[in-house]
Amino acid sequence: MAETLIIENDGFVRTLRLNRPDVLNSFNNDLLAALGKAVRDAEKDKTVRCVVIAGAGRGFSAGQDLADVADRYKDDAPIELGSHLRERYNPIISKIRTMEKPVIGAVNGVAAGAGCSLALACDIRIAAESASFIEAFVNVGLVPDSGSTFFLPRLVGVLRALEMAITGRKVKADEALQIGLVNRVVSDAELGAETQKLAQQLAALPPRAIGLTKRAMNRAWSAELDDQLDYEAMMQTTAGQTRDHREGVAAFLEKRKPNFTGD
Ligand code: T3D
Q1: Residue 1 pLDDT
Q2: Please, where are the H alpha helices in the chain?
């Protein structure tokens, strides 16, 4: 049986490719377990400085595999979806946000339901022209989960977020760019190369500075200004004590390329 997740390393960049193309990379328990382990491993591994999440075939991910859960509905027993989310989806979304490494979502096609949430959890989203985003939950009588109610209003505002969530309509790549849902749209053919180019650029930058920046930005979503100013000062004390800070300053003054090591 083919692996549900393909893991590829290129220098300091690790790509996690969802690999159930026949069902648009929808999530069964195997894929969720593999992705959960892969994000935990990527966080711990010092040789990984940037993570890319991508999809095989024509989709990014169509969310929960609806066939995989059909067993649940065989009888009239009450169903408790919350524990499935808490055990399998939520730890993945949390890890992507708290990992002090940049995570790029390379959205090659449709990102629907929890697949859309997964894309939204990434730090940077690059979309192919044929990509689309669908808060598909409502179409199957569910509410947005896996972080969609958190990320979407913060990214595009409550007005647009709520409309996407309660209509379940498809937002294509050009609209996604216009409303601030993605950083960039590239041609389908260029998605792989453009993503790798950005990932390699990020991997060459000082890892601690990037990690602390991500931590501070995450925190800012629910902070007061004075409190956040103080937090920035604290983060800067830490960053200022790294070897990479000295290397960056020295390289600038010596007019050479810096060599950041993560120390
Ligand atoms: O349940 C819990 O544990 C709670 C968690 C919930 C999280 C969620 O993600 S709920 C939302 C689940 N996802 C959906 O409702 C999306 C369902 N899929 C679609 O609406 C459409 O497939 C798309 C709009 C995403 C794409 O449409 P299209 O026309 O490009 O492709 P298609 O023909 O519909 O799909 C291609 C194949 O993938 C097809 O299989 P076939 O007919 O070729 O054998 C289709 O059945 C399969 N597929 C697509 N999405 C899913 C799926 N199979 C299982 N589960 C899916 N989610």
Answers
A1: 67
A2: 29-44, 81-84, 90-98, 114-121, 148-156, 158-167, 173-178, 191-203, 207-220, 225-240, 243-253
